[in-house]
Amino acid sequence: MNNLLKLMAFVCMIFTVSTASAQRSATVTPDGLIILDATLQDVASEYVANISRFNFGSYQEANSYFTKYIEKSAGRGITFLFDIPNQKLIIYIDVANQQMVPKSHAKAVSVNDINYYLRAVYEGRI
User: Fold this and answer.
1) Alpha helices (runs of H) in 24-125, residue ranges in sequence order
2) Hey, which of 8, 37, 100, 107 has its CA 20 to 30 A from 1?
């Protein structure tokens, strides 16, 4: 299990280096609410947040802290990975499928829709 976590962290770092230009920012509030940058309403495939305020010493600590997001988003087109050496949370979103929130036939899912979903998870409504 420990080797699997190390492998996931390594893969995360490689993706971070290879896709740095496609990243948009996200914020994690001091109490753990994740907010994606909504400056542009189209959903990006990757968001990065600084988590240094939490001072996580291991992948397991970060994973445990954000477990409610990870568990509620499983299979819904969103993945949370951690770059512990750089104290970053990387959020990948399946922009092609967008299964995370109900899709309206009239419009694509927006960043505000995803932020609403993340707040609902944070507040325990989902």
Assistant:
1) 59-65, 67-73, 111-123
2) 100
Q: How far apart are CA 98 and CA 89, in angstroms?
A: 20
CB 90 within 8 A of CB 12: yes
Q: Distances in Å between the alpha carbon of 111 and those of 50, 63, 100?
A: 19, 23, 11
pLDDT in tens, 18-62: 444 468 999 999 999 999 999 987 889 999 999 999 999 999 999
Q: What is the pTM of this model?
A: 0.76
> Which amino acid type is present at position 45?
S
The distance from CA 114 to its chain's CA centroid, rounded to whole angstroms, is 11
Please, are residues 25 and 49 in contact by the beta-carbon 8 Å criterion?
A: yes
> Which two structure tokens, joined as six digits, stand for 23?
């990243």
Burial track 88-105 (b if 16+ CB lie within 10 A, e otherwise): bbbbbbeeeebebbeeee
Question: How far is it, in rounded angstroms, from Cα 40 to Cα 24?
Answer: 9
